[in-house]
Amino acid sequence: MQELKTMDIISKESQLSLENVKRLIQRNFSENPLAWWDRNKIEATLKIKEECKYEYVRYKPIQMNMEDKRDMQMIIKEHINLGLIEPGISAYSSPGFLIKMESESKKFTAFSTPQGQYIWNVLPIGLANAPQIFQRKMDNLFKDYFEFMFVYIDDILIASKNMKEHIKHLEIFSDACYKEGLVLSEKKTTIAVNKIELLGILINETGIELQEHIVEKIRNFPDILKDKKHLQSFLGVVNFAGIFIKDLVKYRKDFRPLLKETESAKWKWEEIHTQRVREPKLAKPQGEDELIVYTDANDYRWAAVLMKKTATGEEPCRYTGGLFTEQQARMWHINEKELFAVWKAFKK
Fold it and tell me: So what's the pLDDT on residue 54?
């Protein structure tokens, strides 16, 4: 069993407590997602609309070379051994794993390979509503601990003020996982660290900032947009980084007409390339901090920023903003737009 990653420098007392917590957490590790399914016996049921019951979706197995076929055979064998899939025959064939499938729903999860057709015994990732089903399970499991636990699909972040509190939180988390039969990944588990990378964001004691690979994607994006799809790809990265970029909505106004164009478009975005470099990382508001919300609006857009008051001034915690619809921009008085900005800021 590999050593859990932790902080390098902690007190001897905390080290002993951490060793006990590690043993508690390690009992939840397994390579088999269904290892302790019997503890809660949650199943996923797929309900097909009446008008779609006889609309079968079939896909032929994808073309593979000999090396790919060997890899596929190995994966199929591994999944069968773990009980995740089984050979099956189904008119439905379409290419996640911690929720067991209800028996009558398995046929809708069929997929084809050169080695034959198989059906899933567990909820496959490819289903459109699989993330919602899994998120609902996780929310129900940890609903009493949202004060210090943040859950997004299968990523769990436990935030504590100090080591003593962190150890207590880890004990609560481990007991909840054990009781509900939630399987944890040993390779991906890290405890008792003062900084962590999660979902493209770096979180540490002083604040929150984008991971460098996200910054590089924005910084290194080509100066010439080849087509609409190319622009959409860039916008996806920029929108992900939206809370870090001041006045992002200003750039969205420039992008909107380009999304309607069919020809190649060239746009100079030196501003947005350098904006992220100039912006400080986001501060983390604490319970006793004095917070200030600034809002603004003009004819076509609104913007807001959450600021944290410090001894030396103010630090940004988050940016947000949006564009008014054509009707709102045309019909609303500026006072209405300003009030709308305030309402949206507090709603965010």
Answer: 41
Please say if the pLDDT value at position 311 is more than 50. yes
Q: Is there a domain that residue 157 lies in? A: no
Instruction: Identify whether 17 is part of a domain.
Output: no
Phi, psi of 257 (to 5 degrees): -60, -30
Residue 116 predicted with pLDDT over 80 = no
What mean pLDDT comes out for the span 31-44?
Answer: 74
Region 106-135 average pLDDT = 77
pLDDT band of 120, cuts 50, 70, 90: confident
Domain count across the chain: 3
Does 111 or 268 have the greater pLDDT score?
A: 111
Using a cut of 0.70, tell me whether the model's pTM lies above it.
Answer: no
Residues paired with residue 320 on neighbouring β-strands, in sequence order: 304
116 and 52 share a domain?
A: yes
Rounded CA separation 182/334 (Å): 52
Q: Which of 296, 344, 20, 1 is closest to 174 using CA atoms?
A: 20
Q: Which of 245, 278, 311 is the last residue of a domain?
A: 278
Q: Are residues 264 and 310 in the same domain?
A: no
**Mean of pLDDT over the chain:** 75
Is 337 contained in some domain?
yes
Nearest to 160 by CA among 191, 186, 199: 191
CA separation for the pair 214, 78 (Å, rounded): 34
Strands of 19-91 (E only): list them: 43-44, 85-87
d(CA 299, CA 222): 31
Q: Which domain holds residue 89?
A: 47-126
137 lies in a domain?
A: no
106: CATH? 3.10.10.10
Using CA atoms, how far apart are residues 38 and 36, in angstroms rounded to an integer? 5
